[in-house]
Amino acid sequence: MRINSFLSKLLLIVSVLLVTYLYARYERNKYYSANENSSNELVLKNLPTFNSVEVSTGQLLNSQNILKSSSGLFVHIWGTWCGPCEKEMPEFLKYAETVEPKGVKFLLVAVNDEEMKIKKFMARYSIPKNVIVVIDKDNSAMEMFGTMKVPETFLFDKLGKHINKFIGPQEWLQESYQTRLDFWLNTKNSQDLAPNSQDRKIETH
Length: 205
What we know:
2 domains
């Protein structure tokens, strides 16, 4: 009698655990499935028009004016308080330097930050001529770009069309970043890319 009662309770516990596990797996698969379906779709279509303050000069800069004098523009959302941003920065600046002859510019937008901390942080590095470091004074950049977590980097062609997004720190010195940039910034290719083309991608690391 006691054995039957024990087995019944054990069976009930196992059943509850199994149902809980299966439900958790269902919810997890549903979540990842939804993300996979949208992984190559860029929600942001064009470069937002926004103002920011250049850290070294205090000058107010407009994103569209920076774009006009470039063949392409990387917008990098980061912060001095972000560990992955700090680790990525040396390679990112080196990458910016290597692609400077292509006429590409880099706008480094520090969010939720302070000017003195940014100046101290950037003093450790040699800043290439095509890199502009700004602070997002009104803390609007993350919402404007749809950024949930830094670092995130966005690439726009010379017409302001969003052609690639990089989530998280990247290994910028890999040769593939050089060769693909030539394709991305080719005027004909970037204009012909459809909104959901596989060449308009979100990349993660």
